[in-house]
Design a protein that fits this description.
With about 190 residues, the chain is α/β, with parallel strands linked by helices. It has nine helices and five strands; from the N terminus they run βαβαααβαβαααβα. α1 packs across α9, α2 crosses α3 and α6 crosses α7.
């Protein structure tokens, strides 16, 4: 099963991806996690990405697409994967389509986790407190900028994937287990 999770920052994509990983035994390909790992390791790409992420901006399509394409070729992706944080733009979605075509693959579904922006800000503030600020992007000002960027650049993917017949929308404001049940019902 090959899935894309869409939703604004703090909507619960990472939480739901982990549950789906365990349920379907497929890896989560999180560009955020991959970039955070590069940042933590202090690689040249990581240092470049850190400056971009700290501003609340998005890393270039070429960097993200390359990371994702290489990761899809790993043996644990043979039975599928969950993309979390990619694609973020129509250009990335088109690049993903081309990438999958070249590999002889296709997406099974795109799951949109809908969430109220005001509640998301509360969630992010709480996550920052719980994790002791482990994520440099967990603060209200950066989140507000990321929500604007999401609405401008990523929200159009909803129409893009609806047009392909792949979009499944779920209410991300429900309790975690109910969001999971909604996702499973939508993709099975």
């Amino acid at each position: 099963m090959r899935l894309v999770l869409l939703g604004p920052p703090g909507a619960g994509k990472g939480t739901q991806a982990q549950i789906l990983v365990e349920t379907y035994n497929i890896p989560q390909l999180s560009t955020g996690d991959m970039l955070r790992a590069a940042i933590k390791a202090g690689t040249p790409l990581g240092l470049e990405a850190k400056a971009i992420v700290d501003r609340g901006d998005l890393v270039s399509d070429a960097i993200v697409s390359g990371i994702i394409s290489e990761r899809m070729d790993e043996p644990d992706c043979a039975n599928g994967f969950i993309l979390d944080g990619f694609p973020r733009t129509i250009a990335q979605a088109e690049a993903l389509d081309d990438m999958l075509d070249a590999k002889g693959l296709k997406l099974d579904a795109v799951v949109e986790i809908k969430a109220d922006p005001d509640v998301l800000i509360e969630r992010i503030i709480n996550r920052a407190k719980e994790t002791g600020g482990a994520r440099t992007d967990d603060n209200e000002d950066v989140l507000r900028k990321r929500l604007v960027v999401y609405n401008e650049q990523t929200a159009p993917l909803v129409s893009f994937y609806a047009g392909q017949g792949l979009l499944r929308s779920v209410d991300g404001m429900q309790p975690i287990n109910e969001v999971t049940a909604s996702i499973k019902a939508a993709i099975e």
